[in-house]
Specification:
Helix content is 32%, strand content 19%. The protein is α+β, with helices and mostly antiparallel strands. The strands form six sheets. Strands 1, 2, 3, 4, 5, 6, 7, 8, 9 and 10 form a ten-stranded mixed beta sheet that branches. Strands 15-16-17-18-19 form a five-stranded mixed beta sheet. Helix 13 crosses helix 15. The longest helix is centred in the first third of the chain and has 37 residues. The protein is elongated, with a radius of gyration of 35 Å. The chain starts with 7 loop residues before the first strand and ends in a 13-residue tail after the last helix.
């Protein structure tokens, strides 16, 4: 690398070199487009020599480097930005400026150095350059370079792979990199800060001893080299055009690239029409709220709808807010502010109304803009363009989309500095082709299950198909006479298996007992005598095999059957979601336990919901599923919950209260609804009441709205009243619904337990 002294002429490179210091200066990348890939590949290959490898500077994010010198050429002929500066191979590499063109400086770099580079070039009449390096990375630490993969690739085209083609992201093949012993990264330029470049240029020009006439002559000479290259290229195109005109009556022969561009533009114009309809339609989402979730110390801020489906994510720190549906932005911003996230609206959203039906996927340093399609996950969607936040460059694959995608980015809080369009890279074209021919419907099956034919008969014929289905289609039925697989999970070694089994059956696992799973035949263990269920079947009972897709069908009828059957045989009414975590039928009836497990298989859980890009309806909440199954016919929805009557006729103000009341009734625990608390001049001036009073005078409270400040304050007063008057108070939350036998164990009638 060079030291910081002054701008000096390098005869062997034919460049006025701007000095750089790796410890102080910026190592900049530059934008590479498809038309400059051949020149970039030739430049990199000509420098890939083992003797050229040097230790990486401390500031470099790589393992080694190959020092290079690069030419910086002002390009006023650039259609998108007349300030553009081309990064090119040095003149000594041969060919014109256009032949040596590797890419363009990003707009952010132009603001720093572009003016000085143009001034130095024009005043001296000499090409200007800078130092830089080719990044090299250790092959062993690069996951792309697996020895077995290389052995397979060596059979194809000299190790390049049958499908490999040079691209802007990978101009060098894996075999060529393996021969060097390093993974080849991008080319970087070493340029000082703006003030330093300006001072160096002014010092160089002060020493430049040419008069005005000489300056004009040398400047004209530099411009003439670029003009000559442009004129030669224009002459070639004119000759080809005249030849095509004489031969076929057209100025140019249409190429496959031309046809692909016309096809993309035509598809884009039809998209613009559909987007107008999309923007005027209601989005159908309700009750947006923001939540913070942390998994393995990785924290995310999500935006959920009323049913708990993720519709957006706020990327910390500072955004953007990405959404599954851009029509939700205003409501999602309100939800984030209510959650305590300091986020500003990106300008006037009403003025940015020409947005597309597209989603932004943030990752890998760039933003991918994708087009939603029913039945496809976000990562499987076709890409319409991409945005580089570092340079502010938006690249679209069809010119008609430029304006709409620009509006989309502005709604995400950024304004593109440069908008370009061109053909997508080959890997993107292959990805988009797969997206175009992918199945167009989300499968309602989220997990595979395998139960024996004998067990499947416990469920009516129309619904049995969902008990042996796979997410991708097909079946996986286990037969009763099959050989049992070896024990895959041991509750002693697998805490997840043990917790699942103990939660479902409310008893510790008997580690000494093993037998065939009653549902699938696998080797299993038990928490209740004779009731063996494997880890897989326990997981399916807790998570379900079906998921809400927003599109009703035969699977919906299976859900309705399962909910009605659970309400009839196990809960004497509509169950809560938390109650499904605990089997509530008699353990002395194994067939009934099997049926209760299978019904849980068929009940979708909110966490498994996977809606299409634009579903026919929003995902159902748990209460909506109960209503759809006809289990809330006697209920009235209020702001506090669904008012309904318990099995014993007691009026309950929520489903939560009904579950507790039904439990007390079916277990023979005497309970009186709504007893009054003792009066108190400060704590009870309004006639506070408990939910129930048991036979020994114990008060019971079902606490369902603790997140509401007024409700929580009332509960605090009730606790203090109970303390002052010596009342025994038992409180139950929704999380306790699968622990009711333990909570009320002291009041349950004596005798053998009949249920979980």
């Amino acid at each position: 690398m060079s030291s910081r002294v002054a701008i000096q002429y390098a005869p062997d490179a034919g460049l006025l070199m701007i000095p750089g210091d790796p410890a102080e200066d910026h190592a900049l990348g530059f934008a590479v487009f498809d038309d400059s890939v051949p020149a970039l590949r030739a430049f990199v290959l000509s420098r890939l020599r083992k003797e050229s490898v040097r230790p990486a500077p401390r500031e470099a994010e790589c393992d080694a480097v190959i020092p290079v010198r690069l030419s910086l050429v002002p390009r006023p002929d650039n259609d998108y930005d007349t300030r553009a500066v081309s990064v090119a191979a040095p003149p000594g590499d041969g060919g014109s400026v256009l032949d040596r063109h590797l890419g363009y400086l990003y707009s952010s770099a132009l603001d720093v150095t572009g003016e000085s580079i143009r001034k130095l070039t024009e005043e001296t009449g000499t090409p200007v350059g800078c130092h830089g390096w080719i990044e090299l990375h250790d092959l062993e630490s690069d996951s792309r370079f697996d020895e077995e993969e290389f052995d397979d690739l060596d059979d194809f085209h000299g190790g390049a792979g049958a499908d490999w083609r040079p691209s802007r992201r990978e101009p060098v093949s894996w075999a060529e990199q393996k021969a060097l012993g390093y993974a080849v990264g991008p080319v970087r330029l070493l340029l000082p800060a703006r003030r330093t470049v300006r001072a160096l240029v002014e010092a160089c020009l002060a020493e430049h001893d040419a008069g005005p006439d000489a300056r004009q002559e040398t400047a004209a000479g530099v411009e003439w080299g670029l003009r000559r290259a442009l004129a030669e290229r224009l002459a070639i195109r004119l000759r080809a055009g005249l030849s095509h005109r004489a031969a076929g009556g057209a100025w140019g022969r249409e190429t496959e690239r031309d046809r692909a561009r016309r096809r993309r533009d035509a598809e884009a114009r039809s998209l613009l029409e559909s987007w107008e309809t999309y923007r005027n339609a209601a989005h159908g989402r309700r009750g947006l709220r923001a939540v913070t979730r942390s998994v393995f110390h990785h924290t995310r801020i999500l935006v959920l709808d009323e049913s708990g489906v993720e519709v957006g994510q706020y990327h910390e720190p500072g955004g953007p807010l990405t959404l599954a549906d851009e029509r939700l932005r205003a409501e999602a911003l309100d939800a984030l502010r209510a959650h305590g996230v300091d986020v500003d609206a990106p300008g006037d959203l009403a003025a940015l109304g020409g947005f597309p039906d597209a989603v932004v996927v943030v990752g890998g340093g760039t933003w991918s803009i994708r087009l939603p399609r029913p039945g496809l996950s976000r990562d499987a969607l076709a890409e319409a363009g991409w945005f580089d936040p570092d340079s502010g460059t938006l690249t679209v694959y069809a010119a008609p989309l430029a304006e709409a995608l620009t509006v989309l980015l502005r709604r995400h809080g950024v304004r593109p500095l440069l908008v370009t369009w061109g053909a997508p890279p080959e890997e993107v074209e292959r990805h988009n082709a797969r997206a175009a021919f992918a199945p167009g419907a989300v499968s309602p099956v989220s997990r595979s299950s395998r139960v024996t034919d004998a067990v499947r008969r416990l469920v009516p014929e129309p619904h049995r198909r969902w008990l042996d289905a796979k997410p991708g289609g097909g079946t996986a039925t286990a037969t009763a006479g099959s050989t049992l697989p070896s024990l895959a999970d041991d509750a002693a070694d697998n805490p997840y298996y043990r917790r699942a089994l103990e939660a479902l059956f409310g008893a510790p696992v008997d580690l000494a007992e093993r037998g065939p799973c009653r549902l699938c035949g696998r080797s299993a263990q038990s928490a209740r005598p004779g009731l063996f269920y494997c880890h897989g079947c326990c997981a399916l009972a807790r998570n379900g095999v079906l998921r809400d897709t927003g599109e009703d069908g035969a699977w919906t009828e299976a859900v309705v059957y399962a909910l009605r059957r659970l309400a009839e045989t196990e809960f004497s009414g509509p169950p809560s979601l938390a109650q499904l975590d605990r089997i509530g039928v008699s353990f002395e009836s194994p067939g009934l336990v099997d049926e209760a497990m299978l019904c849980r298989f068929l009940v979708p859980r909110p966490a498994s919901t996977l809606l299409g890009a634009r579903p026919a309806r929003p995902a159902r909440t748990w209460t909506e599923w109960l209503a759809h199954a006809g289990l809330l016919a006697d209920g009235v929805r209020t702001s506090m919950g669904t008012v309904t009557r318990a099995t014993d006729g007691h009026l309950c103000r929520s489903l939560f209260e009904r579950h507790v009341d039904d439990f007390l009734h079916h277990r023979g625990v005497a309970h009186e609804p709504e007893p009054a608390y003792p009066r108190h001049p400060e704590l009870n001036t309004t006639g506070l009441r408990a939910d129930w009073r048991l036979a020994d005078g114990t008060f019971v409270e079902a606490l369902g709205l603790l997140t509401r400040e007024a409700y929580a304050a009332k509960v605090t007063r009730k606790r203090e009243l109970a303390r002052l008057h010596g009342l025994r108070l038992v409180t139950v939350t929704a999380e306790d619904l699968d622990r009711l036998p333990e909570i009320f164990a002291a009041w349950l009638p004596s005798g053998p337990a009949a249920a979980g």
